[in-house]
Amino acid sequence: MQQDPDGGDDEADAISLPGPGAAALERLTAAQARRIALAAQGFGGRARRADGSAGGPSAAALHRAVRRLGVLQIDSVNVLVRSHYLPLFSRLGGYDTAVLDRAAWARRKTLFEYWGHEASLLPVEMQPLFRWRMARASRGVGIYSGLAKFGVERRDFINAVEAEIASRGPLSAGELSEGGKGAGGWWGWSEGKRAVEYLFWAGRLTTATRRGFERIYDLPERVLPAAVLSQPTPPEAEAQRALLLIAARALGVATARDLRDYFRLGPADAHARIAELVEDGSLQPVTVDGWKHQAFLDPAARRPRRIEATALLSPFDSLIWERARTLRLFDFHYRLAFYTPAEKRTHGYYVLPVLFGDRLVGRIDLKADRAAGVLRMIAAHGEEKTGRRDDPAAIGAAVATELASLAAWLGLGGIACGTDGDLAAGIARAIG
Q1: What is the DSSP string of 279-302?
Q2: Would 8 disulfide with which of 67, 246, 267, 320, CB 3.0-4.6 Å?
């Protein structure tokens, strides 16, 4: 997990604004803010395809969706499907994942890997906007303290690793001639792994491709488009403003903490840049009913009166990855169950929030049982606070349709329904 680049107070959200006081600001209802946020994230648009067959989303549509979001978070958990694949399915329906693979890991890239939110896929044209972070990382700022210390103490070794990859070509950490062995566990990195990760943070290496899920590292000039690398490096403040504007576009309406969290900016940097963006009119301060902190609106944000959407959300979807924002927008408390001790899990292991209309109405525990060729719905729980307008039968039918689409997209032959949870029976009936 990436550190806060400035090591600031994670709860800090107060910001001094130029211009009119709060009494003069536009006021949004909580429902308006929720719909603005959903539209900004790409929900409630045109009808989605049910599978990845011909006529599904085009490569251009996929690229537009990634650029709308600005970032896809990568995670190693593969109980259902790798996390970077699912947000596009949630918004566009079944698509050919090979298109995303080629964009990220083939020779002619339109996406690249870096620490955007956490480990992330980002449009290649955004690479210059992260060079300030790379420069800071090379000085040991904004990275894990142990990795920063390693960068100082083992500089000659790190330089030798970079030279070996320059000479031999793309390599994994395990293929280095003096990579060493890890100590086991997630963070039991070998010295070779520490070296390539330090170089990755500093922008001196990037991901050429992945083998399975293992990063293969190479020099940026052999991987990224020359047209991108030749672009001038923007000043820190300019790059940070650009990142905050991308975040604002993707969030629609957000607090300062929401905006800075999107690309993991530190409080001092983000608050200074947000004030500048407000002053030049690029962000509009607003108030939102029930929100404790100042909110900021993308002036170009859509303001739909209604959202019609059904989606199963990756735990790492940018709509919900900031848990305080998820609670504020949807009155939905969510945490990653697979990082929680088994005895403390309440809804299952790989639990996906269920979006129905403009609210999160339930949680569904899913597993792709590839050996049996089925999608397993282990449990499905509804929320107590979903409101009187929700029809459990309508939710069950919508989720059943979504599960059928998901199973088809994953190439699974059917759905096996468990009985745990109050939504499970209705979903099973709808599946038939």
Answers
A1: HTTSSEEEEETT-SS-EEE-TT--
A2: 267
Please give the C-alpha separations between residue 166 and each of 128, 185, 361, in angstroms, as whole numbers. 22, 29, 51
Phi-psi region at 357: left, alpha or beta (left = phi > 0; alpha = psi -120 to 50): left
| 67 and 122 Cβ atoms separated by less than 8 Å | no
Nearest of 175, 213, 211, 212 to residue 196 by alpha carbon? 175
> Interior CA angle at 314 toward 312 and 319, to 5°?
90
List all residues 6 or more positions away from 172 whose beta carbon is below 8 Å from its beta carbon: 211, 214, 215, 216, 217
Cβ atoms of 306 and 35 closer than 8 Å: yes
Q: What is the pLDDT of residues 154-213, one digit of tens each?
A: 999 999 999 999 999 999 999 999 875 555 444 457 899 999 999 999 999 999 999 989
Whether 103 and 110 have beta carbons less than 8 Å apart is answered as yes
Cα(139)–Cα(281) distance, rounded to whole angstroms? Answer: 34
Determine if the pTM surpasses 0.90.
yes
Question: Taking Cα atoms as reference points, which of 10, 73, 16 lies closest to residue 266?
Answer: 10
- In the beta sheet, which residues pair with residue 206? 218
Question: Which has the closest alpha carbon to 274: 320, 243, 319?
Answer: 243
Give the residue among 321, 271, 313, 314 at the shortest CA–CA distance from 296.
Answer: 271
Strand partners, 212: none
Q: Where are the alpha helices (DSSP H) in 125-190?
A: 131-138, 145-153, 155-168
H helices within 207-282, ranges in order?
Answer: 226-229, 236-251, 256-262, 267-279
Give yes or no for residue 18 having a pLDDT over 70: no
